[in-house]
User: What shape does this take?
Amino acid sequence: MGRGGLRHLLLRNLLERILRRSGSGTAPGSVGEAISTLRDDVESVDGVVDWPFDVTAALAYASGAIAVLLTVDARITVAVFLPLAAVIATAQLLRTRLQHYRAASRQATARVTGVIGEIFTARQAIQVAGAEAAVVARLRRLGEERKRAVLRERLQDLSLDAVFTGTVNLGTGLTLLAAASAMRAGTFTIGDFALFATYLSQVAEFTSFVGYLVAMYQKTRIAFRRLVDLLQGAPPAALVAHHPVPLAGPLPDLPAPARSAGDRLRHFAVRGITVRHPRGGGIEDASLEIEPGTLTVITGRVGSGKSTLLRAMLGLVETQSGERFWNGRAVARPGEFLVPPRVAYVPQVPVLLSGTVRENICLGLPCADEALRRAVRDSALERDLLAFPQGLDTVIGTRGVRLSGGQIQRTAVARAPVREPELFVFDDISSALDVETEQQLWRRVLARGVACVAVSHRPAVLRQAHRIIVLDGGRIVGCGRLEELLETCPAMRDLWSASAEGAP
Assistant: This one.
């Protein structure tokens, strides 16, 4: 595979791994480090794809030249090898420093990239807080750190180039001096000198090229190690696993999620799930069961572990213990199994793309017009579409900047019914909705008759729940219908009385 093609293959395989792992763990390090790896380290590895051909050609030519020179004068020819040995030894001695400067440069670049991404994401919060000057100062400080790291790396590169070039030139000069001495002694003819002068430059260039390759190899090792880290446990060979990468023409259509008889939900159970966050918190030994056509609501105080339980149920976070069972069969890879057409998940903070409403709902999947219209209606978005200038084809801007908070939530909600899953999983999807729109949304979603699990503290949702799971301090302290919990669960009574609509 030629240069460029390898870069796209690496990007394709890395992104596939990240997206598959998004259910069971985030990318290692910060987002900025991941972007830096996908951009810079992929480019570095791709840059060495032609080396075998270059090295083979240069080695073949240099070997032939050296063979010719040995037949002319072996003693003088040996002097040609001395610079090569010096160049390789110098590069090896500086290996640790090369890797250190390369790693520091990449980390500094990743920090700058990450902060720029955070600034774009939190631009409104920055403006409201009046923190523009502080943010710019931080970005400037990180930029200075990156500049120093890149300059140190560049200075190291230039110093090595000077060493390689100087060593080769010194060796060439010594060789010519030895040849001149042999000419005076009559053992080295003018023709021999002309032959040496012709081949010597090629051997010298090869010597310098070897030094460059050794230095670049050390840098590429850093890039390759970062790529492997981004695979998060997959074998290094997964980086170059063969897959078609269409680089021209229209994008291929994504196939609709395949549905089988075993995908139809009869019973879903989560047993003994435990998640312990590195900085404290999580959930302990949580279990729940879900049947078709029921609404299960997870509720509790802020920080009680509601979203963690929801994400752990779907394999979206690493768990220390616990199992999931779909129709009685254990789910080995929940992050890959609990997806459409089995499960559709809408997070608490949905992310929209810089495209049209249609593109944000379908996300590349083929969507029939009737299914799309029904999904829009079920998400209570149809009135808003009437006010959009191009309806479903209205461009909403980066992260839905042209939409209100409620419109963003309902656009994300529409992604779920359009995929016709067996189980809806919603994480507080009505936090930005007014009471009337919220009631309309839940009425239409539940009218589909499929199973639904939702995180919510809204009384209107709690009243409709077939089962409520109450969390307190990461543990389930109550499970049942609202009337039962108000009698038996103190935590539920506290939550209900704290609600603005607390009257049952």
Q: What stands out?
A: The domain at 261-498 is CATH 3.40.50.300 (Rossmann fold).
